[in-house]
Amino acid sequence: MRDEPTRTRRALGHYGWLALSLVLVGGATASEPYLLSVSDKIAVKVVEWKAGESTFEELTALGGEYVIGADGQASFPFVGATQGAGKTTTDLAATLGAELQQALGLPVAPDVTIEIATYGPIYVSGDVSTPGEYPFAPGLTVIKALSLAGGERRGADAGGRPERELLTTSGALDVLKDEHVRLLVRRARLDAELAAAETVTLPPELAEVEGAQSLVSAEVAILLARQRQMAAQTTSLDEEVALLTREIETFEQKRAAMERQLEQAREQLGKITQLSDDGLALASRVTALETNVADLEGRLLDIDTASLQARQDIGAAERERAELGDMRISDLSLERQAADGQIAALALRISSQQALLQEAALYSGVEVATGGTQPSYSYTIIREGEEVAADMSTAVQAGDVIVARLALSP
């Protein structure tokens, strides 16, 4: 009777942790929340709270993956075309929840969770080794985009291979260092969760790293969201135990009343049986009273059975509540072990990349091109039809076209 709600809670709880993590991590990679753009693919999950049954129900027909079209809109069932470009996932989720409530006539807006399944691509063109389309990732800058495209392409007279290798190696090293910083902050958040803390402490080695504090703030949001999720699941189980306890109290009251009725019926049966034996009462009346006694005894047995089932359900709910905490600790421990392994692997890769960078710098000691000219690059970003000047550290957005141009100055 309670297995299906239990599976629902477990599935929702596990998925909810994952969904919330993804959404918040997506927004944690920059100082401002990520705004959806054309070609972004989003994953939508719609969940409705069934108050009468105290369960969550996923509306699978309304969920799925949708793409932000060229007009900046995505089409959802029962809602139709909805503006997505320029909104955060949180804003779009709120809009979609309100519109679904109105379209379906729901008393309460369903809970809508939106995460970014795939970002729209970026395009690198101009004087680069491999121009083309590349996947976007939060935190991407011009130098990182160039590294994806193999670095800048030097002209025949630009003296370029050592310098190109230096640029490519430097960009790859920056990507590795950025990933290393994020993993250190994530591990700090996992440590805080294991310690049941409500804040995340910035790792000492990141005290001087620019942007590290914003990553900590994002991880704190994930920490609090997961704690709220855990508290909600625990509260739901507590409420179930309280409801079952009240049912048992009601059963006990019914049993007491039923026992009184049974005692009276048995007493009356004894008297009528005595009268029947003396020939002063009909046998049919004795039979009717015996039937009534048997019926009361059966109903009393039903009450005892229902009360026993409620007690078993309480025991199961209490075990599930204990398992919920144990499972959370186990999952967090596994996540932390995985983070430790990734951090160790990244440290080795960073060390190797730094050695390659030193070697590339050694071979590019003389940077003057043949013919007495010095090569230089300029960068621009074409965004929504407008061309914007950029440098190596300029942030890139999904859908941007990054253009690198080589010029030889006398």
Attribute tags:
single chain; alpha+beta; five-stranded mixed beta sheet; four-stranded antiparallel beta sheet; elongated
How would you summarize the topology of this molecule?
Layout lengths: L2 H25 L13 E10 L4 E4 L5 E4 L5 E4 L3 E4 L5 H16 L6 E8 L3 E5 L5 E3 L7 H7 L12 H34 L17 H66 L5 H81 L10 E10 L2 E5 L10 E9 L1
Parallel strand pairs: 7-11
Antiparallel strand pairs: 1-2, 1-3, 1-6, 4-5, 7-8, 9-10, 9-11
What would your notes on this structure say?
The chain is of the alpha+beta class. The chain contains 6 helices and 11 strands. It is 56% helix and 16% strand. A hairpin with a 5-residue loop joins strand 7 and strand 8 (132-134). Helix 3 crosses helix 4 (161-194). The chain starts with a helix and ends with a strand. Mean pLDDT is 80; it is low at 1-30, 155-160 and 365-375.
Largest sheet: 5 strands, mixed
Give me the Rg, rounded.
34 Å
Report the order of strands and helices: HEEEEEHEEEHHHHEEE
The number of strands is 11
Shape: elongated
Name the poorly predicted regions. 1-30, 155-160, 365-375
Secondary structure tally, helices: 6
Main sheet strand line-up? 8-7-11-9-10
- The percent range for strand residues is 15-25%
Helix content: 55-70%
End-to-end span in angstroms?
Answer: 84 Å
Assign the structural class, choosing from mainly alpha, mainly beta, alpha/beta, alpha+beta, or little secondary structure: alpha+beta
The residue-averaged pLDDT reads 80
